[in-house]
Design a protein that fits this description.
The complex is a heterodimer of chains A (595) and B (194). With 595 residues, chain A is α/β, with parallel strands linked by helices. Helices cover 35% and strands 14% of the residues of chain A. Chain B is of the alpha/beta class and 194 residues long. In chain B, strands 2-3-1-4-5-6 form a 6-stranded mixed β-sheet. Classes of the chains: A alpha/beta (595), B alpha/beta (194).
Chain lengths: 595, 194
């Protein structure tokens, strides 16, 4: 897998400190590094940080001290770490420092299709854009060397199709030797005041200018044309691989020069000049933004995103690229048709998921509330009608606060506001939000869906679990103490599997909101993710003869183990986990526990 | 610049059926057989019960990890309805191997949509060779219905010309030791089942 290849190269080339926060498609980078640490008994530091800003600053400081370091995250995670990124470009680095930011054109599992290469350009740091897992593996050493030569952070930007693609790679040895290093004080660099920042900015501009002239990163010509071509294709990332595969099966490769760009920013200056002088038609294929294209000062001969030739949104799959190539070469191709109107599958919470129990209780207690929510498996609560917003990590609490202030002016009809957030997301960026909401007088119910893991991205342990990424033990964070410490006066802990208790606690919380001295009510709905505990398969619930097949349970409870077959509810005994929560979902009590 | 033709297998199913693990076993087997292999699928939210696909490509030299429309050689589908979603991607002389299992989408469960009848007949309108496999029954007779994905790989293995021992090695490499024997039993039953 691409992420494993990146991890392997990072460890092979002597990285001492790796930090990350999980996010698809980047999550397996850190877990693979941790696995290698264990397998080779390496004396390195690996951590799941509580958010990307923490991870970035931890890894950067190891570089300040002279060690090779890496920070990995998904593209929207880089937004969280943008503040230190901008400043780190100015201060520069000592030990090689790689920022691995994985993009997700599509998007397959992200809230935006943003291009991390744009943020590399914004910060003025070089970025590599590998086109395959093998490419990603091979670009780590040059990235470390470039970082050390210019004392600058270097970004490696894989996309989903690199991170989660698999191919065979021949690996090298891991020796795990780190030279002794120390942090050398240099306040005018590491703690530069605005006056010195001007000098650092000037230095940064010089660095990036020199990097743009590095011969080593001059784009490669992939094919050999028999005679001089007037047409060229410039591509980077996995889009290059698609182009190569499409061209390989045609004769087009004889009349067009194809260039593969490993370093899209800063694009080699000599290359830009040569291309503009040599070709009449230049097609640029990259995703998701036009970063290479942007660096061509003259657009007259360019076919790309700026003139609508290549789409500006969505993933560039072979199906999208092939017609672009045919259009570019004035060829035609016929296509098969899709069968019409198939009923769609959609993701849903797993059978037995404790989040489903929480959402069901919330809806039972307050069917007409406003439900700001957040990022995680529980975003799928949208299927149960209990998720109204999902903006970005940690936003649920601020949105509940904003909605409260906005709607409290309308005293007649203030609907209750019930925000939901997972435990990992709460630790990531929910705590400052809760301090803010509480201090500024918002009133709402906050349900922390505590399953003690980061479930959506593959069950990475959180600070509440007491386990670190390498399996070593830590003292679990006491969530209740944290919340009490903020001054929250209403705090209850409840197991959402006990639906009546959960409903009563929600109603109690709503009364607290109304009190003259009330405020924010926090409920911790605590039950571990079923991926992390052995599944209990018996006893399972059964459907009694009184079932009328009304469909209430499948509509409002939406457990994948329940269906209406031949006018009666049916339980799929293979997927049922025996959680028994559905007993509460039948309006006439036709679901009972099998004893 | 013509290379030897790449073989494209599109695997489809519903989250939880073990599609990704099955694709890892096939990729591992093809690697062990000496091919250049590229494989790609999407993780994250899609895995929680949504439609799942895995693109597997092998040949002398493969660049892209995604199969272009119109170039699928084998559509290897774990669920009847899911098969229909990808028939537009079939190539010139395709083969469909489909597991005879229905998983109802939420819209069908709630009565808003109708699950198409007689899917094998519909499929034969797109493809001359459609093989129907009862992988769940085979896995049950091997001892555990959860081995359905490996059993189903056994049905696929009949159409790929590499030694059977390579398949066994690939299965052993992908699974925890204590369930290997049961899975190889399921694989072999499906491989021999005509």
């Amino acid at each position: 897998m691409g992420n494993e290849a990146i991890a392997r190269a990072i460890v092979e080339h002597g990285c001492f400190l790796a930090a990350s926060y999980p996010g698809t498609p980047a999550s397996e980078i850190l877990s693979s590094i941790a696995r290698l640490k264990k397998e080779y008994n390496l004396d390195m530091h690996v951590e799941w940080s509580v958010n990307e800003k923490c991870a970035f600053e931890v890894a950067l400081s190891a570089s300040y001290a002279g060690y090779r370091a890496v920070v990995a995250m998904k593209q929207v995670g880089l937004n969280v770490a943008l503040d230190p990124l901008m400043s780190a470009a100015y201060t520069g680095t000592i030990g090689g420092f790689i920022i691995c930011s994985a993009d997700d054109p599509g998007p397959h599992s992200s809230q935006t299709e943003q291009d991390s290469r744009m943020l590399a350009m914004f910060a003025k740091i070089p970025v590599f854009d590998p086109s395959s897992p093998r490419d990603a593996y091979k670009c780590i050493l040059p990235a470390y060397m470039l970082s050390e030569k210019y004392q600058i952070p270097v970004m490696v930007r894989p996309t989903t199709r690199v991170c989660h693609a698999r191919q065979n790679i021949t690996t090298n040895n891991i020796n795990g030797f780190y030279s002794a290093v120390s942090f050398e004080k240099n306040p005018s660099r590491w703690a530069a005041t605005p006056r010195y920042r001007y000098d650092l900015h000037k230095l940064l501009n010089k660095k990036i200018e020199k990097i743009s002239l590095e011969k080593k990163f001059y784009p490669l010509q992939w094919n050999k044309t028999p005679k001089k071509a007037h047409t060229c294709i410039i591509a980077s990332g996995v889009a290059f691989a698609h182009v190569a595969d499409i061209i390989k099966d045609t004769s087009l490769g004889d009349s067009v020069d194809i260039f593969k760009v490993l370093m899209p920013y800063p694009l080699n200056k000599v290359f830009i000049k040569t291309i503009l002088e040599s070709y009449k038609h230049i097609l640029i294929i990259e995703e998701p933004y036009g970063i290479i294209e942007l660096q061509f000062p003259e657009k007259k001969h360019i076919y790309g995103k700026s003139n609508g030739f290549v789409p500006c949104e969505g993933e560039l799959t072979p199906d999208i690229i092939e017609p672009i190539l045919h259009h570019f070469f004035h060829r035609k191709k016929t296509r098969r048709k899709l069968p019409a109107n198939l009923p769609g599958q959609r993701p849903s919470l797993c059978p037995g998921c404790p989040h489903r129990a929480s959402f069901f209780a919330i809806k039972k207690a307050f069917p007409n509330a406003l439900y700001p929510s957040d990022i995680g498996c529980y975003t799928l609560g949208i299927n149960l009608g209990v998720v109204d917003t999902c903006l970005c990590m940690g936003a649920s609490i601020n949105q509940a606060s904003g909605l409260f202030h906005a709607l409290s002016k309308n005293t007649k009809q203030q609907p209750p506001i019930i925000a939901t957030i997972g435990d990992s997301t709460f630790l990531h960026s929910g705590i400052p939000a809760l301090i803010n909401a509480h201090y500024n007088g918002a009133r709402f119910i906050l349900v922390i869906l505590d399953n003690s893991t980061t479930a959506m991205t593959g069950n990475q342990p959180t600070a509440l679990s007491g386990i670190r990424v390498d399996g070593s033990r830590s003292k679990p964070l006491d969530l209740e103490k944290v919340i009490e410490g903020l001054g929250i006066a209403f705090l209850k802990n409840v197991d959402p599997y006990r639906v009546p208790d959960m409903i009563n606690t929600l109603k109690e919380a709503a009364l607290f909101l109304q009190k003259p001295d009330g405020g924010i009510a926090v409920i911790i709905a605590k039950h571990p993710c079923l991926m992390n505990i052995p599944k209990t398969r018996s006893p399972q619930p059964v459907i009694s003869n009184s079932c009328t097949g009304c469909g209430y349970c499948v509509k409002h409870f939406e457990c994948p183990a329940l269906s209406i077959t031949n006018g009666k509810c049916e339980i799929n005994t293979l997927s049922c986990t025996g959680c028994g929560v559905c007993i509460h979902a039948c309006p006439i009590g036709a679901i009972t526990m099998d004893n | 610049m013509q290379d030897t033709k790449t073989t494209n297998i599109l695997m489809a199913g519903v989250g939880g059926q073990g599609v990704i693990l099955a694709s890892e076993i096939v990729a591992e087997a093809m690697l062990r057989a000496g091919y250049d292999v590229k494989k790609s699928e999407v993780h994250g939210m899609a895995q929680r019960g949504g439609s799942v696909t895995s693109h597997l490509r092998f040949g002398t030299k493969v660049y892209s990890p995604i199969i272009p429309d119109g170039e699928v050689d084998i559509l290897f589908s774990f669920e009847l309805l899911e098969t229909l979603r990808y028939v537009h991607m079939l190539g010139a002389h395709p083969l469909i191997i489909v597991n005879n299992q229905k998983i109802l989408p939420p819209s069908v469960i709630m009565g808003k949509d109708h699950y198409p009848d007689n899917i094998p007949d519909l499929l034969s309108q797109y493809c001359a060779r459609v093989h129907l496999v009862s992988a769940l029954d085979i896995a049950r007779s091997a001892g555990n219905p959860k081995a359905l994905n490996v059993a189903f790989v056994g049905a696929l293995s009949r159409h790929i010309d590499i030694p059977e021992s390579i398949w066994h090695d690939a299965i052993a490499a992908a699974l925890p030791p204590k369930i290997v024997d049961l899975n190889i039993k399921a694989f072999t039953l499906a491989r021999q089942n005509q």
